[in-house]
Design a protein that fits this description.
This protein is an alpha+beta fold and about 375 residues long. The protein has 17 helices and 9 strands. Helix 9 crosses helix 10. The radius of gyration is 21 Å and the shape is globular.
Length: about 375
């Protein structure tokens, strides 16, 4: 067991949060090179924190040692979304996952195909015939929003345009609460971003509760009938499912897809000729340009990660961009090589953490795969 490279610094003065959030990729790359280690420590959010930039460390953190590293109950996700499958720990998280997983598999997933196909065809057709330069990220985010609101809340843009626009605007305001200082302040003619986000959350919850009470069809009806542990669980999870998280992730991946293949006619032709090659391309896109930065845990007791000692109460952050470029696992890690998933890295999809990993990975991963395979 080795001592962690780097320095946790002193309280407040030694904090590196601003530097990290300004450019996470450069922050990690510089320290990996400096310490010659893909695991290192520094102080983030005024807490000594170990950074995980290796596949081995990530697999331990999110897999075999996930019971030693817990979600932080004080983070903004909990404040903005309540107790959900994403924010809880232990037995409660397992029970929620067990109850919700049925909604993202089997017949429930298949029943979504027709709607997903129709929305993708309409939105992407409008994009392809515009004839003008487009901000494709915004267009793809709109596509993602239509998909999640139609599937999860039975609100379809073409049938209820005013309600759709209202919810979309509220979701944007609510999302800003995750990226603003957690200061709930209101004065005449002005509110803090966090206060505005909380107000948007309350309005969204009113819409969601009305849907759960009066709409018994589709995902809303199925969710409302589940034996969830708390009476508020269904509404809190719907808030999570319709939030900007999924549209932003989908838009990020589809934008990366567009940019990576825009000048590569050979790869585009191969995708059309071989549907399985699309799977390899999408895996490589997730590897090189993951939609989320990673995740954070708190050590519940003294533990080890990748052979390094991690003291109790240390933070532990895995960085997807860095993990996916671990040269011990991915040959030529900075190159776009879809073929790796049919050769050297075949069967190693579990080394990715774009949507988490291990027993706490995203329960909607299969649905996200359906979105991606329909969109291109």
């Amino acid at each position: 067991m080795s001592k962690l490279p780097g320095n946790a610094g002193v309280s407040v003065l030694g904090d590196k949060s601003l530097e990290f959030y300004r450019d996470p990729v450069s922050f990690c790359r510089q320290r990996v090179e400096k310490h010659r280690s893909r695991v290192f420590q520094c102080r983030i959010l005024n807490r000594p924190t170990v950074f995980i930039c290796s596949v081995q460390g990530m697999r331990e953190l999110l897999g075999e040692k996930s019971n030693l590293f817990l979600k932080d109950p004080t983070d903004l996700m909990t404040n903005m979304y309540g107790d959900t499958v994403v924010t809880t720990n232990g037995e409660e998280a397992c029970l929620l996952r067990l109850s919700l997983s049925s909604l993202f598999t089997g017949s429930c997933l298949k029943s979504s195909n027709d709607y997903i196909t129709s929305v993708c065809e309409r939105c992407l057709k409008d994009l392809s015939v515009s004839g003008q330069p487009q901000c494709v990220y915004s267009d793809f985010k709109r596509l993602g929003t239509e998909l999640v609101l139609g599937l999860f809340l039975n609100v379809r843009a073409e049938e209820e345009p005013e309600l759709f626009q209202e919810i979309m605007q509220l979701c944007t305001l609510h999302w800003h609460g995750l990226i603003s200082a957690p200061v709930n302040l209101k004065v005449p003619l002005w509110s803090s971003g966090y206060s505005t986000a909380l107000n948007a959350r309350d309005k969204l919850m009113d819409i969601i509760k009305d849907k759960l009470e009066n709409d018994k069809q589709g995902f809303v009806g199925s969710l409302g009938s589940l034996p969830l542990p708390e009476s508020s669980s269904a509404s809190q999870h719907l808030l999570l499912f319709i939030s900007a998280l999924i549209p932003k992730a989908l838009a990020s991946l589809l934008t990366s897809f567009t940019l990576a293949l825009s000048g590569d006619q050979q790869t585009r032709h191969q995708i059309l000729e071989d549907p399985d090659y699309l799977r390899l391309v999408l895996l490589e896109l997730q590897r090189l340009w993951p939609p989320f930065i990673g995740g954070r845990r708190i050590a519940d007791k003294d533990a080890t990660l990748a052979g390094f000692h991690v003291p109790k109460d240390y933070g532990a952050i895995y960085i997807s961009h860095s993990v996916h470029r671990d040269p011990e696992v991915f040959h030529q890690p900075d190159d776009f090589l879809p073929e790796r998933w049919g050769g050297r890295n075949a069967g190693q999809e579990h080394f990715l953490c774009s949507f988490g990993n291990g027993p706490r990975s995203c329960i909607g991963t299969k649905l996200t795969d359906v979105f991606l395979k329909h969109s291109p």
